[in-house]
């Protein structure tokens, strides 16, 4: 006899959610990145009451080339209390657009956030939104940011830095390469030493739990360091040290796994060398078993290798010429696709465009006309077509660490958290560039898998009766790490004698925990299927369980004929079904997409373990298990086509922007000109020779001027360049 069981859920039940299976310190991007946005602003520090100018670039998520997949961009200005104080909708033509904000004169000094996104990007939560921190200051009597900076350097630093510095907190963190240390396996451990949120030099010593000195360690002036440690069985380790400023610290190192694999990556000239090391315990348990090494860049797999574990150490070499430029994720997984290790590396661009920026003079008089020449060529000095934006600003207002299009697309958009002095990683004159870049990926790109610290076996739930605090139900103790208590009661009050739970089956949605319990339906889209006009038509033709309602939404039937509308997971990212209107908007978008936009469709049934399932009117708190259907959609390269535009508004419904004021001092007699942004040119296209020239008049202030050039080439990706000249008093 088949019984329908009921489940009294407590918050402790969520042991086998996604977090218990795979937790990463670095948040992964969706498996296919449709679009990326970048905003080039004239600077990052502004006065209230002036203009903030920006050029918008919409790029293909895999190639970083201009994309026409969306024609509308929302740009928001948000204050430090997360309130949107200004918003513009910008029309994008062939992936580019321009706009500006007239900053309210009443804006208070402090940090603000620029945010930009298309409709498609917004479907994927915060992962793909463009965000840029800026500083807005109220005038304090000084005439320009530059003048204020000369008298008070704190004005040009960001408010976040000031707040953090004021706290003076110290922090020491350790990041074992590829996740966790493993007993009896030597591995590299990166570490950071910070005071007040900023890197600071420190030194110390590593001791084991018996008090024996193991090694000395020392971080550089930026608070970065690394050491090699072979943790022994049943031994813990700690560090005693002191900061350069005198504060001491005592930190316990993360515990080593009793068994596992350590992955080490070395970025050599022509190859990426990957070394796998394991201990005898793991080797004996997994001898002759298959594993795979996969490399993923910008959401797509660029390389896979199959290996068989036959020895404690193994070397794999991969030609870097076969890998795309930028951050690459290396993942080691077993034959069940369960991940064991991950590590990020950076692959240099094989073909780099070069941009040269020069002026007709190195020194100018106030109000004198200046001419800037820009040339973009490839490595063979052949001209390159490029779409550029150019800002000419006070060099002190520009600062040394202003994010550019290269540092954003290659690093900031793929790593979460603040990156100090981000431009140092792209300065080819910096001899420490490669070393520091790898260290950044070891720390801010560090990730680990929690399941390796849990018992990697099926967890069995045994009956153990006792009275709970309400004295009306039996409960079952789930013995694991840590212990969990779950009340399970059947409709006829029969206590389950034994339940087997396989934690790896759980899928964590945005607002639901979903456990599949039945074989699903899987469909691979082939060219012969392209005659189906959309996804809805394809599903109704191939799936025997799919039905459609009067609104042309698809649904399934559950127990006792209940209507089940499927949740959608698109390329690994679940869509937030907060209400029926939101659900219907997603259905309208995805069900009407052409079928050749998809590579794979998978339908799974399961149990809903979301918090919303906890509500019940039963006085005993016993609720019925809820059915759920999840539809997994995997896209292919067709998603970059214009047919997927979510917005079809006409160009004249968008904000068109203001014109930048350019004085003509040959015909005007102006005594005072204290502009911080001297010139802003958002729409510059190079000629067939890869060149362009522009002219402008300098202001009346004697100071250094910086010319910033950013943009995207026709077929070689983003570029950035700059030069500095000087305005001298007469």
Care to give the gist of this entry?
It is built from 10 helices and 48 strands. With 730 residues, it is mostly beta strands.
Quote the beta fraction. 35-45%
Based on the structure given, which CATH architecture of the domain at 35-167 is correct? Sandwich
Rounded mean pLDDT is 77
Structural class, please? mainly beta
From the alpha-carbon coordinates, what is the Rg to the nearest angstrom? 29 Å
CATH H-tier superfamily of the domain at 35-167 = Macroglobulin (MG2) domain
The top-level CATH class of the domain at 35-167 is Mainly Beta
Supply the number of helical segments. 10
Helix content: 10-25%
**Unreliable runs, pLDDT <50, ≥5 residues?**
1-31, 142-167, 454-505, 610-623, 637-652
CATH topology label of the domain at 35-167: Immunoglobulin-like
Anisotropy-based shape: globular
Query: Terminal Cα separation, in Å?
Result: 99 Å
Q: Report the major sheet.
A: 7 strands, mixed
Number of strands: 48
Protein name: MG2 domain-containing protein
Organism: Paradesertivirga mongoliensis
